């Protein structure tokens, strides 16, 4: 069973571990569901060190007692919320975890009065690009950097 709920401070070490798993690639059953907790937030993502202070809303997904997904919302205007730090454990990808998480984030954004959401994904994440398109997100632009290209998506709620 998939359960989406609000982040609790006790989730932080597992959230940090989930964030460190590969975000590129398809499902991988060889990755154990039980993640060893990380003692410190990832340096590249300082907002994960202060989730309550950095995000308007941060949700986690559990299945069989394991934290297997996460994602947050940040306001970017009175009408637009940004989706950030979406991760799904490789062992449960393509099993509805990401869809449940995104539906909950969209519902929560609507409840908070936002009319649209936006997010980005890199072109080296073809599964993520297809996933967001499949959820009705439309490409709204691209930015090219020396080592990757970001694709920006938006969706009206």
TrEMBL record:
Residues 2-157 form the N-acetyltransferase domain. It comes from the Bacteria. The keyword Transit peptide does not apply. GO terms for molecular function: acyltransferase activity, transferring groups other than amino-acyl groups. The keyword Transferase applies. GO terms for cellular component: ribosome. Keywords: Acyltransferase, Ribonucleoprotein, Ribosomal protein, Transferase. PANTHER family: AMINOALKYLPHOSPHONATE N-ACETYLTRANSFERASE-RELATED-RELATED (PTHR43877). This is Ribosomal protein S18 acetylase RimI-like enzyme. It comes from Longispora fulva.
């Amino acid at each position: 069973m998939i359960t989406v709920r609000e982040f609790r401070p006790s989730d932080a070490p597992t959230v940090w571990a989930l964030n460190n798993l590969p975000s590129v690639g398809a499902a991988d059953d060889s990755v154990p569901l039980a993640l060893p907790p990380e003692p410190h937030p990832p340096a590249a993502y300082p907002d994960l060190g202060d989730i309550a202070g950095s995000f308007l809303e941060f949700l986690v997904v559990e299945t069989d007692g394991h934290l297997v997904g996460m994602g947050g919302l940040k306001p970017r205007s009175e009408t637009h919320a940004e989706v950030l730090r979406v991760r799904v454990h490789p062992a449960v990808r393509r099993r509805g975890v990401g869809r449940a998480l995104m539906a909950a984030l969209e519902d929560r954004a609507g409840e908070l009065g936002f009319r649209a959401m936006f997010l980005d994904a890199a072109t080296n994440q073809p599964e993520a690009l297809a996933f967001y398109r499949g959820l009705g997100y439309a490409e709204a632009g691209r930015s090219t950097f020396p080592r990757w290209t970001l694709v920006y998506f938006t969706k009206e709620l």
